[in-house]
């Protein structure tokens, strides 16, 4: 054949294809007008429920799972939910591919898949057929079987997030595979022989054929295969029965190019309304994003938010964290903590993170008064295989945890962890920062990430800018009990531990070429069965760890161990927290002088003084002194009166009438056999403070 004639024919064919593409972009063409080499074309225009039209073949394919029709590059497009969505073409009706083919599509990615996920695939166990899809870091790939074996071609560049992007792959028998992103060639691999089709396999769009192991696991034995689908929008998927030239790919991109933003709403981990709110705990249903929310078989009150008046800080007990509470700063940055955790080399971690549906994790509000809020979190640490930590076959019980959070109007909270176990106590403390989608660890925290302080007010800041710090080499300052997390927020979260704590830096599972901090995304929000997945991109919520607090473990009654520590936020230097730390760790003595109550001492796990009725001169009155000093300062106080009998009270502090709401707050917790009165005193002092309580209206 005359080579010039062949060139002219190729030019005419390319021109005809370009005209066809432009025509298809303008109107929905009838099947008769589809060119012979266009074997399949899913435009995702809204159709009958559960069906997607292939305009080239003139047939409907099954649409399953949750999905939404949204605006596309032309007309409508389909938003896949990342979990369940799939389009299926039965094997018998799938297009027969020959010596050459091209697959092209428009995609807008909300989050990269947990591992390779098909845009269009008809393969069988890497032994036959083809797979055109998106990888876990946003790479594009075409994988197929020929007479020469299984061949994979992976793009050198990646698909951006939340942007309309054209992707394409072409194949030519005994030639090569070529990959394109927005018309640019981004990969080429030689291939030998003819395609060996998987003619008995259905053609799938948007979801894997079988469960797939999430990529980049920390521990392979701690990760299981999972179902997932494409997370984002697809439009205009076309399969051509020939190899399109680069110029034709470019024309196809130009024909459908749009400047419109894809309909992928911003994803922000929910924490309730911003700004200061009314002090209290509130049942609510926190909305994250439509597709994730649709998975949950819950009613209207699955989550809890704790607010503080005068402060924008919130504490969130959300399903996405498996109810592990997170302190949310004024700018939306989150700090969380670990649950009680166990570990072995057979199943990996046993923890709350591996309970993505909250089957064994539950929350409830115990107290909710103007003076105090108490939230109870109960859970069973579970492994990726669904097994429990330290299971006792004789009783059928395993390690079970009750955590109580005592929140006060000054924005502080005490965490009390009660472990029911037939073995040693588990590790319950680990400073964890949660990253919002689109952010990396370094976007959330300064490299001078953690400041330690002791009861003398001495402090030292540790930096992650160079080598990961090691407290064991030289602990500075001596005997630290305070950790301040230096988030890029005005308010910095802190923890105060009991003297005798054993702090350590989280210095393993590091990838210094990726981040200065260990960075994973198997938690929060993720639904994959994995006890650790290295984060590949800032596309999803993720987390990283700084240090363990090592709170002392106390032996409780029966099979229990317990520990406690204090949380809060500050915009002051870390050393100034020493006064608060001493007020909790070395609380002033409460001396009862008169009234109907007996002091049971200071309960550090509640940050409260406990009093019982029934003493000499029993009655609803109380008079006492908090023996504050420089070594035992007073930074606010909570008095809990068991067997309380009055609804309203009058309070005097150092002989002066106190104003409710400013100087004190009072609440009653109704009980089955007796009520409790909760009195909150707002007062800071390094000298004794006298407290008098009596029924409101009583004569003096």
Largest sheet: 10 strands, antiparallel
Strand percentage, roughly? 35-45%
Structural class: mainly beta
Count of β-strands = 48
The mean pLDDT is 93
Total individual domains: 3
C-alpha termini separation? 117 Å
CATH-defined topology of the largest domain: Beta-galactosidase, Chain A, domain 5
Low-pLDDT runs of 5+ residues are 1-32
CATH level-1 class of the largest domain: Mainly Beta
- Percentage of helical residues? under 10%
Quick summary:
This protein is mainly β and 700 residues long.
Verbal overview:
There is one protein chain. This protein has about 700 residues and is mainly beta. It folds into 3 domains: about 5-255, Sandwich (Jelly Rolls), CATH 2.60.120.200; about 280-575, Beta-galactosidase, Chain A, domain 5 (Distorted Sandwich); about 585-695, Immunoglobulin-like. The chain is built from 5 helices and 48 strands. Strands 24, 25, 26, 27, 29, 30, 31, 32, 37 and 38 form a 10-stranded antiparallel beta sheet that branches. Strands 1, 4, 5, 7, 12, 13, 14 and 16 form an 8-stranded antiparallel beta sheet that branches. The longest helix has 24 residues, at about 5-25.
Short descriptors:
48 strands; Immunoglobulin-like; 7% helix; mainly beta; 700 residues; Jelly Rolls; 10-stranded antiparallel sheet; disordered N terminus; Beta-galactosidase, Chain A, domain 5
